[in-house]
Every structure is written in C-alpha cells, then in structure tokens.
Amino acid sequence: MKESSLRNSTVTVKVMCAIVFLVFTFCFLFFYQAESLTYLQHVLSGGRTHYDRTVGGIILILILILVQQAVYRITHLYKRGHALTYFPSILILTVLTDVTTDGHIPFHWVWLSPLLLIAFVALAWLSKQFETYEPGQDNPGLFSRQMWINMLTMFVMFLFACLFSNRDEVLHNRLKAEMLIQQKQYQQASEVGKRSHETDSSLTMLRVYALAQTGQLGSRLFEYPIVGGQDVMQPNGTSVKPLMISPNQIRLMNKNRKTRNDCLLTKHLLACDLDAFARDIKKTYDIDSVPLPRHYREALVLYTHLRSHRVLTYHDSVLDADYEDLRKLQRRYPDLSARQTAIRDTYGNTYWHYYLMKK
Question: CA–CA separation, 282 vs 268, rounded Å?
Fold first, then answer.
C-alpha cells in the first residue's frame, strides 16, 4: 500500500511540474519575450527569416521538454529534487531571451552557463544521495511536502528566468512597435507603451511615424514622454534608428503632402520654435475655419499669450481658461521641483507641459 501511495505521489509531482513548466514557458514566450526572440532571429539571419511566435514558440517548448526528459533519464530525480531536472531547460530559455540592444546574447553567458551547469550537477548529485533517506509521506498528493518543495524550486527557477532574461522595457516597446509597423498596424503601434514613462529617442521616432500614418501627429504626440527633441523626426543611424525595419521606410512619410506639413509643424513644436510654427501653420491650415489638432491649438494659445509681436492671434475659450489655470498653478508653487511635478500631474498630456519642461 505504501509503495502504491509513493508511486502515485511521484506521478503527481511529475505531472504538476510538467504543467506549471508548460504554462510558464507558454506565457513567457508568447506574451513576454516574443519580441526578443524575433529580434535575435532577425540579427542571426541577417533579416532573411522571421520568427513566428506561434510556430517558433511551440518548437522551442518541445525542445525544452526534450532536454528536461533527457536530464531526468540521466539523473533519475523523482522525489523532492524532481523539479531540478527542469533547470537546464530554464537556463536555455533565459540565455536565448537575454537579448541586448544590438541583437546579441551577452558574452557573460559563455562562462556563466558552464558554471551554473556545474552547480546544477553538484546539486542534483546531492539530491540523489538524500533520496534514499527521505521519510515516507503521511499526506501524499497535491498537498504533500514533496509537492510543495518541488513547486518552490520551480518558482525559484522561474524567477531566475524573469530576472536574467531581457527586462529592458524600452527595448521591448521598440521591438513591439516595429513589429506592428511592419504589419502596417499603425494605430496599435502608436499605443505601445502608452502607460509607461520610460522611452528613448528611437521609440519616440517610431511613435512619430505611427501617429503620422494615422493622421494623429498633431493631436496625440505630446501625450507621451519625449526624448530627443526635433532630431526624432528622422533616423540618424546612431541615437535615432530602427532595429529591424529599414530606415528608408521611416523617411517615406515625407511623400504625402499633409503628412509632410504635419511633420514640419511637429518639428517646430519639438524645437519649441513657436514663431516658426505660427508662421508655417498659416501656410498649411485655415485656422479660422478648419478645426485644428489639439496640440496645434495648445501651441497657438501659448504663442498668443507669450508673444506681444505676433503674426497671428488665436483664442479658444476652453484652452484660454485652462492656460490661465496653468499660470495660477505656476504661481502657487515657487519651488521649481514642486512646480514641475504639479504641472506634469495636471498637464502632462499637453504641449504646454513639454514646452515648459524644455524652457
């Protein structure tokens, strides 16, 4: 009876370890690190092949399971140490998804991986030696001590994968945006990382491009944090560049007249050149009869209030009232840091916030 109970408990442990491993790797590959693997394959193949998250993910999961099965047959760890048989698979998963900005796996894995495998071999050997001394289980099954030791071991290994794979939020967002741009899903690309405060000049360039393609450049760009100023309007091959798509594709936006005009006006706004903006918007928009994008209206209200000698005067009852509230907020906080925080909290999605932070 005890032997039958032990056998059932061992099978339960194996099944549960397999289930949690499959669930974790599926989520890890499909929802967290798909962009890293796409970029890695793009770089390794020179752009000739494309990683498919479904096909590639399934193939990789099958390979990892085969590795685990091979390790199990070598070690025969089936009690409290069974979860350790998944470590080489977790290590492979971690290394493959620790992709740097240049699309390569960091060199430190060349020496660190063998050291970790040596440590694994030593730990597996010790675990095997102690298996014969392990007491029988009074409560076999899902709630046994053996089960929870294995689950804790799996959790620690999953934590290892999450901590030491690529965790660069900006890089993930850049890759995700580029993948969507390749698929011409510009609206979705413009939404990538919308709630994040982390960005760089290249991600800002991709947002400019996606918003220009959807005609929302003048109404949504300053809802995002912006790094790079006017230089983000075009790739420069160094600080502003795509990772997987051609830089020439980004420059194609200049072929459409409306988009070209919006790009010129946005460039003036990013440079905080309100005089050039006011001069050029008169040439491209009939401001008295055509509804203007939100950021253009914000810029014109700001221009009207800041310039005594101006080429045009623009008023919007709602924005004029909001601007007056902004001025009151500035006077309320004499301390610069407190004033900037208050403006960001209230007007963080406006052009006014960008302009005041730059000045």
Answer: 14
